[in-house]
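Hello,

Our lab assistant flagged a job as stuck in the queue for most of the afternoon. It eventually completed. Since we weren't sure the result was trustworthy after the delay, we are filing this so someone can double-check. Below is the sequence as submitted and the structure that was eventually returned. Let us know if re-running is recommended.
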Amino acid sequence: MTRSRVAIALGVVAVLAVLATAAVAISTYGGDEDPPAPTTPAAQPLVVHDPASGASFEVPGDGWTVRDAQTRIYYDDAQGDPVAVVRGPAVFRDGYCEARPRGSSRAFAGFTEQPFEDWVDAIGVQVDESRSGLVRRATVRTTGTGPCVAREVEVAMRSVDDVRVVLVSDAGALSTSQVDAVLTSLVLRD
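-- returned structure --
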């Protein structure tokens, strides 16, 4: 074969390959419809269990983690004594603050022995208080300082018999419906 015949043969093969690729692409596209969006399953809720009472509540699986039962989050008084404590809490956006990644979160929820008033007093100065159904809540101006301290905190609590669940969040970190969903998921031991 001469060089010109080889060049023509290769040109024909190239044109046929382009046409075949275009035909596959057109038949695969299928028209003006958008491909279906991929679906991701919702994260399963996480359960926080209180060994002392047998009660439990749930937090969403997205953005929340449940800490070990021995972990405590607390507010202390001027002498450094804990006055409002939760053990083994669920924590929202754990480690969000770069200045203090091991000790920061946007919210936490857990079982507590202290009443609502003790939590509000331990955190700061109460701005307002309300009750919606089974949930009591207050906005509190904090007295703490530092790069990870919110200026205002929302405290919400649900009490059933002697079981109390408290949820403390930076103001605006969670919606009222999100807070209510966590607190109203409280189930006492059957």
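-- support follow-up --
The delay was a queue issue, not a problem with the job. The result is valid. The two ends are 91 Å apart (CA to CA). Residues 9-32 have pLDDT under 50 and may be disordered.
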